[in-house]
Amino acid sequence: MAADPIISLRGITKIFGSGPTAFQALKGIDLDIEQGDFVAVMGPSGSGKSTTMNILGCLDVPSGGQFLFKGRHVETLDRDQRALLRRRYLGFVFQGFNLLARTSALENVELPLLYRGEDKKTRYDMGMAALDKVGLKDWWDHTPAELSGGQQQRVAIARAIVTQPDVLLADEPTGNLDSERSV
């Protein structure tokens, strides 16, 4: 007997605005994602990719349908409950990096661990291990302004994986990497 999918979307819709100016960005999305799956959300500009990613990442809620994460109905969760789900189970790699400008690479990577309430030594150890995985251990004390675009993206990847999330969501995660590192 197969386990339930980690993510299950049924009839997901998303409408922005109301009345005659309402725009339906998603129209009945059905999707199952099993543990260990690699899924790409692809399509032309305006097709709902970012909206889908925001719903999958619990950053936005659908207008209709059911969204189950590990069997729990996400569409019924309040803002704080969705934040807790993100903190415990999700990692994000944003297209625009979203690094804090005046903090070091290590401090940027440690941020999700800080939100989790991890102690300083745990944050340091896990942060350095994540930076090592992306080849930036020796750049731990550099701010984003002191890093190339590709290095900034690798810091963003390290930040996304530092918590060892069940689900990693990435919006064009290799767009700024050199060809050797993006494969």
Short description:
This protein has about 180 residues and is of the alpha+beta class. Helix content is about 35%, strand content about 20%. The longest helix is centred in the C-terminal third of the chain and has 14 residues, at about 120-135.
How would you portray this structure in words?
The protein is of the alpha+beta class and 183 residues long. The chain contains 6 helices and 6 strands, in the order E-E-H-E-E-H-E-H-H-H-E-H. The protein has helices at residues 49-56, 79-89, 105-116, 120-133, 149-161, 179-182, and strands at residues 7-16, 23-33, 64-69, 72-73, 90-93, 167-170. The protein is globular, with a radius of gyration of 18 Å. The model has no long low-confidence stretch (mean pLDDT 91).
Number of H/I helices: 6
Low-confidence spans: none
Order of helices and strands: EEHEEHEHHHEH
| Estimated share of beta-strand residues | 15-25%
Oligomer: single chain
Q: Please state the average pLDDT score.
A: 91
Report Rg.
18 Å
Question: What general form does the structure show?
Answer: globular
Instruction: Find the count of extended strands (DSSP E, 2+ residues).
Output: 6
What is the helix content? 25-40%
Give structural attributes.
single chain, 183 residues, alpha+beta, 4-stranded antiparallel sheet, two-stranded parallel sheet, 6 helices, 34% helix, globular
Write the layout of secondary structure elements.
Layout: E1 7-16, E2 23-33, H1 49-56, E3 64-69, E4 72-73, H2 79-89, E5 90-93, H3 105-116, H4 120-133, H5 149-161, E6 167-170, H6 179-182
Parallel strand pairs: 5-6
Antiparallel strand pairs: 1-2, 1-3, 3-4
Helix pairs in contact: 3-4, 3-5, 4-5
